[in-house]
Amino acid sequence: MVMIVFVSIAPPDVYLYARPDGDHLKLICMASGFYPTESYLTIMRDGMLLDHTDGLQSTKVRPNEDRTHQIKKWIKIDKTDMVPYTCDVNHPATIHIIQTWGDSEKNLVSPSPPEGMEKDSHLLQEQC
Description:
Protein name: Ig-like domain-containing protein
CATH topology: Immunoglobulin-like
Keywords: Glycoprotein
Organism: Muraenolepis orangiensis (Patagonian moray cod)
Structural class: mainly beta
Number of helices: 2
GO cellular component, one term: extracellular space
Region (Disordered): 106-128
């Protein structure tokens, strides 16, 4: 028996949020629900691209139960750091999705992904 599954192109949902992590905050950018797997996610601090030498960590693109995909990148930052951080996601279903975190008008801890997403997510079950 051959099973054919059609999955149309799906844009990512993008979340940029922070969680307390000891004396720091863990700033997390997550893109989820996208198809196909080709996706490019970057985090910038005040316009400067961050990479592993800055402490940026990442998961690989991982599958969701609905055959879409997700990826997450994170970096530890000082709790008093109010410089703007930007998460930029480029995917074939969209041109760019940009989320910004960290101006003087915002709270230190931003909203997380919708309730239940972390519990059901393969990606978020990993320690980060």
